[in-house]
Amino acid sequence: MTTQKRSGGKGLVLAVIGLLVAALAVYAGYRLFAPPPATVDMTYNTVSSDGLYQVMFETDTLPIPLNETHSWVLIVTTPEGEPVNDAEIGIDGGMPAHGHGLPTEPKVTEGLGEGRYQVEGMRFNMGGHWEIRVGINAAQGTDEATFNLDL
Amino acid sequence: MRALLRGLRFRRPIRSSLAVAFLAVLCACGSEDFSEAEKKAIGSLSLDALSDLPLDEGNRYSGNRAAAAFGAVLFNDEGLSGAGTVSCATCHKAERQFQDDLPRGVGVAETDRRTMPLAGVAFSPWQFWDGRRDSLWAQALVPLEDAREHAGNRTAYARYVKARHGEAYEALFGPLPALDHLPSNASPRGDAAERAAWERMTLRERDAVNRVFANIGKALAAFEETLTPREARFDRFAKAVMEGREPEEDAVFSALEREGLRLFIGKANCLECHNGPRFTDDHFHNTGVPPVPGLAEDRGRAAVLDEVQDDPFNCLGPYGDAAPDACSALRFMQKDAALFERAYKTPSLRGVANRPPYMHAGQFDRLEVVIDHYSNAPAAVSGTSEIRGVVFTERGRKALIAFLKTLDGEP
């Protein structure tokens, strides 16, 4: 009786281990073949795609408002933290999920010095995920930084 | 005895609150059954979320009560028309949400566009269905000279205001210029004879007339600024939800209204354009609304991008009062016409159920037809419709309409 019981317990343990191994194998396979999870950088401080510039922004109203035209200050430095002045800057963006752009054409209206640039005409007309692309052309070269906002 | 009373005192509220909780579960009408995201959306649509009306820096009479009172007189004055038969109030009827219930407005003749209601109009950075003016005061001038609306001209209006309202005008705006020697009818936007007469006037005379004309617009705008959205049942419901308490009396939503609200802020994607406390993003969208047979070609905002930038009465023009820096709508306007082919302004939905027909030329006579349109999402005749079809059940359609009815303000 007791031996039988024991061997039955052993069988159960083995079955459980087998199941665990199978589950692990399935999970490993899933991890191997599944696309990597989307990582969206939500910080307002980012490195441009070729690594030429460190780009940050500040807004004059927080949280970022909906349906209200407002201003940003962009701060552009080298990766070492040296301010980048006299850069040519273009702002573009939109909602990737909806396939539309910004409702306005924001512009840099003033270089404030120390790598700071006044951006006017920012406006968002819908809640959700927005992408803002900042094109930068300065002595270091041309590069683009992307900010992701969740409004 | 005291202990007994205490017990009773306690027991009653407990029992009744249990009953309330039970009822709440039964009809699922508690405010707590909305998710945090849904509550956030409901709060964002509530009138409580509406900011104070910013003054229009381009109109130094913005927020001026005396100017608003004078504007109200002008708004109702049929003398401000070519034949003395049309006022702003002809189409913008105060007792009908300042619209006229017609597919297309009728001044001296039928126009191509639906008359827009005016509650909250001053919040909008762009006026008209296509946004061809950048301020309320510049907007007010256009119908005055439109051949199918007021059918008058600016020189005649300047002379009329001097004769009929001279004292009130001068009290606000200062001395009127000499006008008697000018032609009776002259305008750069008039018929051939009026345009020729305008050309014969000196630059100084034209400027003097334009200034009086602009001030008429500024007084009208000061009046229209006072037309703000009224609290609706939805706002009372939203207030209760935001405060985490049960809606009471007429703020209680039926199951159907709640379903409609959920659809509106969820699956039906209405919030993409109809967002914020005025239910509009103040932007322009191609939604594939078909043209009305027989009307002239209408490309929506795509056709007016130059017009608003060239308008002498725009924010940057010589008759605006703002510093150029303050003209943000115009300075940062999106100018890519391809984005605006057959795009029209998102109308506010406050009071919408009570004012058919719908769309920029009154194409749809009932809300059911509007919902069918958004459900079927037909391709646009030109440009690309932004609408992605939504499948509604019959109950879903009814629910959405039931919800829209909760946006009606006080009668």
UniProtKB/TrEMBL annotation, chain A:
It comes from Nitratireductor indicus C115. The lineage of its organism: Bacteria, Pseudomonadati, Pseudomonadota, Alphaproteobacteria, Hyphomicrobiales. The chain crosses the membrane at residues 12-30. This is Auxin-binding protein. It comes from the Bacteria. The keyword Transmembrane applies. Residues 66-134 form the YtkA-like domain. Keywords: Membrane, Transmembrane, Transmembrane helix.
From TrEMBL, chain B:
Pfam families: CCP_MauG (PF03150). Residues 66-177, 255-408 form the Cytochrome c domain. The keyword Oxidoreductase applies. Keywords: Heme, Iron, Metal-binding, Oxidoreductase, Peroxidase. It is found in: Cell envelope. GO terms for molecular function: cytochrome-c peroxidase activity; electron transfer activity; heme binding; metal ion binding. GO terms for cellular component: cell envelope. PANTHER family: CYTOCHROME C PEROXIDASE-RELATED. This is Di-heme cytochrome C peroxidase.
